[in-house]
Design brief:
single chain; mainly alpha; 12 helices; about 55% helix
Length: about 250
């Protein structure tokens, strides 16, 4: 559980920067997001890894082949795994916007009225369980990551707090290389003209390939017309009233 203190330190540092250099001064729901983070710790941090490990072990006992092997250099195997799981995350993300029942879960993440670093933790608790049965074990089965590779990816995952931060940061012409607050804010934009763009987690090259790449240094407002006001509401979010139409992952003109 050494990850918890690091999460607190990263969120604290980014929140202080957001207060000093905000992209927008719209009110967010930081306290609610932190409550959601704590509430989903059991399914996300404890249950999901056990479920994923069980699926991987069952696949290995069944003798399913892997893409990588012991003959691969460790650095190459690590890069292959990180690219594979980030591609899986991107495809799953696109599916969340295209399939209504998945959107009902994912819309909680998009309902924050001002995206900020804590929004990275604003996910319905069942999302982690679904990923534990799908993309996480699939990447592990195909690429057999070592403990060192998993540690590196876990550290890279902290970058998601930065990409969600309410900071006026854009990588400009290099935005296709790595996600940024400006790039990801376009994805969270409440403007329908921005919907269906920038699904990538770490590497926007997947958006370029899939036709959903939308660069820019815009910092539009975020959120949905409807959002939870209490932690209980957030925990049962998919079972409440329709949160709004999903932004489908179709290509948009630049």
């Amino acid at each position: 559980m050494l990850q918890a203190p690091l999460v607190i330190l990263v969120l604290l540092a980014l929140t202080l920067l957001e207060g000093r250099f905000p992209a927008r001064r719209d009110p967010g729901q930081r306290l609610l997001n932190l409550g959601i983070m704590i509430a989903r710790m059991i399914p996300a941090v404890l249950l999901a890894p056990l479920v994923s490990a069980g699926v991987v072990e069952a696949a290995r006992r069944a003798g399913l082949p892997a893409v990588t092997s012991a003959a691969w250099p460790p650095a190459a195997a690590t890069v292959a795994y990180i690219l594979a799981i980030d591609f899986g995350e991107c495809m799953f993300h696109r599916t969340q916007h295209a399939v209504p029942f998945l959107w009902r879960m994912h819309s909680l993440h998009h309902s924050d009225p001002c995206m900020n670093a804590t929004t990275a933790e604003r996910h319905w608790w069942g999302d982690s369980v679904i990923k534990a049965l799908t993309i996480w074990p699939a990447a592990a089965i195909l690429f057999r990551p070592s403990a060192a590779t998993l540690t590196i990816y876990a550290l890279l995952s902290f970058y998601h707090y930065f990409s969600h931060a309410n900071l006026r940061v854009s990588f400009g012409r290099l935005s296709w290389l790595l996600n940024s607050p400006a790039y990801h804010r376009i994805h969270h934009s409440s403007d329908p003209a921005h919907h269906g763009a920038n699904f990538a987690g770490l590497f926007p090259i997947f958006d370029v390939i899939l036709g959903s790449y939308r660069p820019g240094a815009m910092f539009p407002p975020t959120g949905l017309d409807r959002r939870p006001e209490t932690l209980i509401h957030a925990l049962v979010w998919p079972m409440t009233d329709e949160p709004g139409a999903p932004s489908e992952p179709e290509a948009r003109p630049a």
